[in-house]
Specification:
- The complex is a heterodimer.
- By secondary structure, chain A is an all-alpha fold.
- Chain A contains four helices and no strands.
- Chain A has one domain: Up-down Bundle (3 helical TM bundles of succinate and fumarate reductases), CATH 1.20.1300.10.
- The longest helix of chain A is centred in the N-terminal third of the chain and has 32 residues.
- Chain B is mainly alpha-helical.
- Chain B has a domain of 37 residues.
- Chain B contains four helices and two strands.
- In chain B, strand 1 and strand 2 form a beta hairpin.
- In chain B, helix 1 packs antiparallel against helix 2, helix 1 crosses helix 3 and helix 3 runs antiparallel to helix 4.
- In chain B, 19% of the residues are buried.
- The chains are: A mainly alpha, B mainly alpha.
- At the A-B interface, helix 1, helix 2, helix 3 and helix 4 of A face helix 1, helix 2, helix 3 and helix 4 of B.
Chain lengths: 117, 138
């Protein structure tokens, strides 16, 4: 891997880890369990749609999806190296992990860009 | 092996013992380390789930209702419950590591670890409450 990019990847890992640590538990509990299962009154479609219509919400959601993906890419890459002893596949694993994070982020940006109102 | 590698009596052949792929089950702290690293898989899982929900929201009320119905299936309830456990483990280990990863100094004195971790936990509570308040309002 090119050396100059390492600090940037570490910064993305760290920022994504913080975003996931602070915000994923509450979103996972509400959006993943409590709302679908009816434990708590779920917000109506129209109110969620108008919430997402606001630029700040869309920026929030982009950060919420994108940075944790880069956190995953970085951490999972080293898990594969150390956990499964795949040191010899360094380049392939790095390309697949960071590539997936880039694709996910672009898809999130494209989706949110088209949800302007 | 390349031809220019030579071994002398004082520099013997490298000896590397093969380590089992399950090396991390041999001690509690190693297992904790690998479980912590594996939380990233569930972080990615939920990021993708969020993106799926956002896309459904953009496709209209029927698409959104279909996603909610899918999330009621036993498979997704199990996955989400497991993911919640791992994401909570990520949060706790992340906040506890924060004082070691970033040493904060005030007037030349190191801010105690407990205070730095405490600030992280406080931010966690405040942000979670804010998100819940916004989502439970409508």
């Amino acid at each position: 891997m090119a050396r100059p990019i390492t600090p940037l990847l570490w910064l993305l890992f760290s920022a994504g880890g913080t975003v996931a640590a602070l915000l994923f538990p509450v979103h996972l509990f509400l959006n993943g369990l409590a709302f679908p299962l009816g434990w708590l009154p779920a917000p109506r479609y129209e109110s969620l749609r108008s919430l997402v219509g606001h630029p700040l919400t869309r920026l929030y959601l982009l950060v919420l999806v994108s940075l944790p993906l880069f956190h995953w890419a970085h951490r999972f890459r080293y898990t594969l190296y150390d956990g499964l002893q795949l040191k010899h596949l360094t380049v392939l694993i790095a390309v697949l992990c960071y590539g997936a994070a880039v694709v996910g982020s672009l898809l999130a940006a494209y989706t949110l860009w088209n949800m302007s109102s | 092996m390349s031809a220019d590698v030579r071994y002398t009596p004082y520099h013997p052949r490298w000896y590397r013992r093969r380590v089992s792929v399950w090396w991390w089950l041999q001690s509690r702290s190693y297992t904790g380390f690998v479980l912590r690293e594996l939380t990233s898989v569930f972080v990615a899982f939920f990021a993708v789930l969020l993106l799926w929900q956002i896309r459904a929201l953009g496709h209209g009320p029927e698409a959104y209702a279909r996603v909610l119905a899918r999330l009621r299936s036993p498979l997704f309830v199990t996955l989400n419950a497991l993911a919640l456990a791992f994401v909570l483990f990520h949060s706790i280990t992340w906040f506890n590591l924060a004082p070691k990863a970033m040493v904060v100094r005030l007037k030349g004195k190191r801010v105690p670890d407990l205070l730095v971790a405490g600030a992280n936990y406080a931010a966690w509570v405040v942000l979670s409450a804010a998100v819940a308040a916004i989502l439970l309002r409508g």
